[in-house]
């Protein structure tokens, strides 16, 4: 709508539950009104968040979200990438430059049945291999180092994780 008038015009906005109108008034009289229907209810979405960790673990969280402001909604997912978007569902993902909380608590390096470096949930003799970590062939090792891996090396943090992978598998594996 173009306002072309010689006399000064005042724009007034009114917000109704199902209608928004903009009125052009001159000296208190209403001359024109434009109405549009706006949905008053908030948007309900299913949000799926996938966090990819250095150790290969992917943590997935699903939640229902009520969205009143799209600006606020998008701001809350700064740093996330959209993997998939549907009418009532959005899947976000992001790379986390750390090891997963599961690996921090229960993760051990060890050798799997093929003699490859693997991450175990628990001590290698008692724990199970974490499927998310792709086993890495190890370079030829001294028997002392093989014994250390058979007993398990507790994973302390992401720096320790990367150090052990480099030490046992070599630079080209990372």
Largest sheet: 5 strands, antiparallel
Cα separation of the termini: 60 Å
Indicate the percent of residues in helices.
10-25%
As a percent range, the share of strand residues is 35-45%
The overall average pLDDT, rounded, is 79
Multimer state = single chain
Look at the structure and name the CATH superfamily of the largest domain: Bypass-of-forespore C, C-terminal domain
Helix and strand composition category? alpha+beta
**Gyration radius over CA:** 29 Å
* CATH topology-level fold name of the largest domain: Alpha-Beta Plaits
Mind telling me the CATH class of the largest domain? Alpha Beta
Describe the structure.
The structure is a single chain. The strands form 3 sheets. Strands 8, 9, 10, 11 and 12 form a 5-stranded antiparallel sheet that branches. This protein has a 4-stranded mixed sheet with strand order 5-4-7-6. Strands 1-2-3 form a 3-stranded antiparallel sheet, with no helix packed on it. By secondary structure, it is α+β, with helices and mostly antiparallel strands. The radius of gyration is 29 Å and the shape is elongated. The termini are far apart. Helices cover 19% and strands 43% of the residues.
């Amino acid at each position: 709508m173009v306002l072309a008038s010689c006399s000064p015009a005042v724009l007034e906005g009114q917000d109704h539950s199902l209608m928004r109108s903009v009125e052009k008034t001159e000296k208190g009289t209403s001359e024109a009104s434009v109405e549009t229907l706006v949905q008053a209810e908030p948007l309900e979405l299913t949000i799926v968040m996938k966090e990819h960790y250095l150790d290969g673990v992917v943590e997935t969280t699903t939640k229902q979200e009520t969205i009143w402001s799209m600006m606020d909604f998008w701001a809350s997912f700064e740093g996330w990438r959209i993997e998939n978007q549907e009418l009532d569902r959005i899947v976000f993902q992001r790379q986390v430059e750390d090891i997963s909380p599961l690996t921090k608590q229960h993760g051990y390096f060890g050798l799997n049945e093929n003699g490859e470096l693997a991450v175990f949930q628990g001590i290698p003799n008692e724990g199970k291999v974490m499927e998310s970590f792709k086993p890495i062939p190890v370079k030829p090792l001294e028997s002392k180092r093989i014994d250390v891996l058979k007993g398990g090396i507790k994973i302390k943090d992401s720096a320790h994780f990367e150090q052990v992978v480099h030490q046992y598998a070599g630079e080209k594996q990372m």
